[in-house]
Amino acid sequence: MKHLFLMAFVSLLLTGCRQRDANPNILPPATQTGENTGGCLVDGKVWVATKHYNQLVATRVSVSRGYSDIYIYLQSVRGGVGEKSDIIIKLKKINLELNKEYSLTQINDSINAEGGSAEYENNILTGPYYRTNNKNYTGKIKITRLDTEKQIVSGLFEFDAIDEDGNVVHIKDGRFDHRF
């Protein structure tokens, strides 16, 4: 009986310590403490990054010669792999100032590319794939914290993006708080 009680207690401790996903119906708060959270409104509906599938390690920051490259990757999985969606934001070769808004338009992936872009992919298996461009479908991002010692990057974002068929998605009230 003593062993059964001990196993139940240890099991309770282990499940209580496991990291849980945020409520998928409520946006996480806009924190700046490295909580590894992210979320936004996608066409008015709450979208929250999931921690147990989210590849938060894919968030990358590099700073050299006064320029910053920041790559934010948020992923949400509800159900199986087919119900996965991603938000990717790239800032390349920017002279970063905290709390300054940077445009999200369209940049290429070449080494010399500069600027910012954003993408939204709804359902990895079937698409569609939306991206910002240099015309009517743009956005903005504001980095509110960049701590290279504690390896924390936090910020706010929003953008409109278009797919190849002309369908538009509106991403609003976005926030992220990641360790890199």
Description of the structure:
By secondary structure, the protein is mainly beta. It is built from 1 helix and 11 strands. The protein has one helix at residues 2-17, and strands at 37-42, 45-48, 60-64, 67-77, 84-94, 101-104, 115-122, 129-131, 139-147, 152-162, 168-179. The strands form 2 sheets. It has a 6-stranded antiparallel sheet, with no helix packed on it. Strands 3-4-5-7-8 form a 5-stranded antiparallel sheet, with no helix packed on it. The longest helix has 16 residues, at 2-17. Strand 7 (115-122) and strand 8 (129-131) form a beta hairpin. The chain has one domain (23-179).
Radius of gyration: 18 Å
Mind summarizing the main beta sheet?
6 strands, antiparallel
- Number of distinct helices: 1
* Beta-strand content estimate: over 45%
Structural class: mainly beta
- Assembly status: single chain
Q: Which geometry do the CA atoms define?
A: globular
What proportion of the residues is helical, as a percent range?
under 10%
Pfam family, one: DUF6252
InterPro entries: DUF6252 (IPR046219)
Organism: Riemerella columbipharyngis
Protein name: Lipoprotein
